[in-house]
Amino acid sequence: MKEKRGIFTKILAVAGTILVWVPLLAPVFLSVMFLIRSGMFRMDYLMPAELFPVALAGGILLVWAAIRARAYQKLVGWSLAAAVVCLVGGQGLAVVTGLASGDTAPTGWQWALVIASLVIYTLALAAMGIGGILLLRRLFKKSGG
């Protein structure tokens, strides 16, 4: 299969990269805005997980673009898979251990595992976003110069 660097692949890559970065940058942006308005710093560390549908849509578009461009397929694909597994696994663990219902206090190894899954999910999103940026650089690179 030949590498496809046409406008459709570029649109997929741009849209996918934007959608992947939104869940990562939204809490930072909103925290800065809140700090400016109120003088207090508050950060919603769960927002990237809450915006998972946006990240998933972006990840799917990025995987599609990476396959068409024949570039960064492993980075984008594996980071999307890791994000999905960590988020779903962390939520499942929260339900099983009683953290989700409030039956278990947010302390101890259960809490640490759920938070670790959120951290790994966020890192996987960042890796996917970096893969999107690398893919965009490759797609928009002038050929022959």
Describe the structure.
The chain contains five helices and no strands. The chain is mainly alpha-helical and 145 residues long. The relative contact order is 0.17. The mean pLDDT is 91.
> What class do helices, strands and sheet pairing give?
mainly alpha
State the helix count: 5
Termini gap = 24 Å
In percent, how much strand structure appears in the residues? under 5%
Uncertain runs with pLDDT below 50, 5 residues or more?
Answer: none
Radius of gyration: 18 Å
State the gist of this model:
The protein is mainly α and 145 residues long. It has helices at 7-38, 47-50, 52-69, 73-97, 108-140.
Give short descriptive properties of this protein.
single chain; 145 residues; mainly alpha; 5 helices; 77% helix; 0% strand
